[in-house]
Write a structure and sequence with these properties.
6 helices, extended, ubl conjugation pathway, transmembrane, membrane, EC 2.3.2.27
């Protein structure tokens, strides 16, 4: 083997080994996060990173329809692929993909929680895959004899959905608002009100520029700050009288955000198997690199 070929092979081996190590650490860390986070009830859950078990229910959002099948659902994800052939190379190329962003409502025996699915690893129970001759399918997937004798395979369609009544395991960042649960950070709230007012500076001058010179002097600025403080307190008071609302969303830190119809045990088992695959890749890459280095030493 020439030197250039050895260098290319060595670079590929190191990349495979590093990729396997990264995959192992990622999946092992996700499994540990799931195991180390206790299951909580919505009503009594602490603010922060939590996991819930519950059942999906219809929310107040307008009903969604799967983009490929027009099936009513609570959440959808789709993909359209095209079959390409170039000599001996054959593959499916993704043409379109997307997922819905409407809020989900999870209920357990103690309360309800709204979930923002953006950024989540969603593992739904319902998944349909079929093929056809048009880029956009006409209606639902073919079944039975129609699917068996269909030769239209240029396009492949995948649609995944979550439906009301399905069980859901959810782990992510939990926050509650309303019901007097949140304390008032007056300086921060006052600053937010002032920034909002500055967005309409003309209106701000009209309210507080008493001498009409087009500027706010020190005394006028003190009036602005006092009014903003009173406005912030009033907004907090009104918010505190609202019913408590619970929300689950993507954590700010590098923690798993997972919505799955499968339970924790099944997810952890899958992550451990995937972590083991990362170990195999890492060792294979390291052995290949050591073999190439050994050839070069001779």
């Amino acid at each position: 083997m020439d030197i250039q070929g050895q260098l290319v092979g060595l670079a590929c081996s190191v990349a495979v080994s590093a990729g396997g190590a990264w995959w192992f650490l990622r999946r092992f860390s996700q499994a540990r996060h799931l195991l180390d986070t206790p299951t909580s009830k919505i009503r009594s859950a602490a603010q922060g990173y939590v996991e819930f078990y519950g059942v999906l229910h219809d929310s107040t959002e307008p009903q969604l329809l799967g983009p490929l099948t027009n099936t009513p659902c609570l959440w959808w994800r789709y993909k359209i692929e095209e079959y390409t052939s170039n000599g001996k190379k054959r593959s499916w190329r993704t043409l379109e993909s997307g997922s819905s962003e409407a809020l989900l409502r999870l209920d357990d025996s103690t309360g309800s929680c709204l979930i923002d699915p953006r950024g989540a690893q969603v593992r739904p129970l319902t998944r349909e895959v079929w093929k056809g001759s048009l880029r956009h399918p006409l209606g639902a997937a073919k079944t039975g004899w129609r699917a068996l004798f269909s030769n239209d395979e240029r396009y492949r369609y995948t649609e995944e959905r979550l439906h009301a009544g399905q069980p859901l395991y959810a782990i992510g960042d939990f926050r509650s608002s309303g019901g007097g649960r949140q304390g008032l950070d007056l300086p921060a709230a006052q600053g937010a009100v002032i920034r909002e007012w500055k967005g309409d500076f003309g209106g701000l001058l009209q309210r507080f520029d008493s001498d009409g010179n087009g500027q706010l002097d020190e005394r006028e600025w003190q009036r602005v700050q006092l009014a903003a403080s009173l406005e912030a307190e009033d907004r907090h008071r009104r918010q505190s009288t609202q019913p408590v609302q619970h929300h689950l969303a993507k954590p700010r830190e590098a923690q798993p955000f997972i919505l799955s119809c499968a339970g924790e045990d099944e997810l952890v088992r899958q992550f451990y198997w995937q972590a083991a695959g990362g170990v195999v890749l890492c060792l294979a890459g390291a052995l290949a690199a050591a073999w190439l280095l050994g050839i070069n030493s001779f």
